[in-house]
Amino acid sequence: MNSDVHIVIHRSGERGRGEHGWLNTRHSFSFGQWYDPNRMGFGALRVLNDDVIAPHSGFGTHPHKNMEIITIVTKGELTHRDSMGTTGHVNERKAQVMSAGSGVLHSEYNEGQDSVSLFQIWITPNVTDIAPRYQEHSFVDMEEGEQLLVAPYGSQSGVLEIHQDAYISKIMLNTEVGTRYALKDASHGVYVFVVEGTLEVEGHTLEKGDAIGVVGVSGITLLAHREAQILAIEVPMR
User: Fold this and answer.
1) Which of 73, 187, 218, 233 has the most neighbouring CB atoms within 10 Å?
2) Which residues, 6 or more positions from 58, have their beta carbon under 8 angstroms from its beta carbon?
3) Closest by alpha carbon to 166, among 220, 238, 94?
4) How do the domains of the chain map onto residue ranges?
């Protein structure tokens, strides 16, 4: 392997955890009361939380500043409200982004009868103190292939836009089907998280909740040994 290639493996069971009654959460990187000096992020990717929120509960109104916050719901529906006057409803067919910018208050609540499962992703922006903004977007259901969810602000239509040269894709692979993920920029790294299934990446086998971060490559090969759903998060490393 090229000496410039760097790989990190994060196993599901090594993640931080929080059991709060209304919230069952797993942290890929240091968050809240869970701190690991070796898990402070991956380049511009600062937070990847795997959350399950109980019915009639959620995150009460709280502030954020200078962070790109992406929410991807995998089950149920989440209600968003913020100090900009926005109310949004996000389910399995939608995703949302809030650019906190100069500062915003918001809440995320499960108003339904069943639990909501979601991923919350924080990416550090490349500009600070901009006017806050909210966006949600609907995506077509996909059984196989790669679907771009998030891209840099103003770069293309039909996706969520963030203030960073970063990309988030959902990849669906059937059993024993492979694909190659090509990085948009050679200076970027890619963090691959397994939502469901069994995946082989660069000779490493990953199960549900596992992740691999790869730096110093133009692309990586993904092979599903069991039907897989994947998040590929490509970010600048500096």
Assistant:
1) 233
2) 22, 78, 79, 107, 108, 109, 110
3) 238
4) 6-236
Q: Tokens representing 141?
A: 């259901």
- pTM (2 d.p.): 0.96
Task: Look at the domain 6-236 and name its fold.
Answer: Jelly Rolls (2.60.120)
Backbone φ and ψ of 13, nearest 5°? -70, -10
CA-CA distance, 54 to 58, in Å (whole number)? 8
- Would you put residue 115 in left (φ > 0), alpha (ψ -120 to 50) or beta? beta
In terms of phi and psi (left: phi > 0; alpha: psi -120 to 50; beta: otherwise), the region of 99 is beta
Please spell the DSSP secondary structure of 79-114, one letter per residue: EEEETTS-EEEE-TTEEEEEE-TT-EEEEEEE-SSS
**pLDDT tens-digit readout, 157-199:** 899 999 999 999 999 999 999 999 999 999 999 999 999 999 9
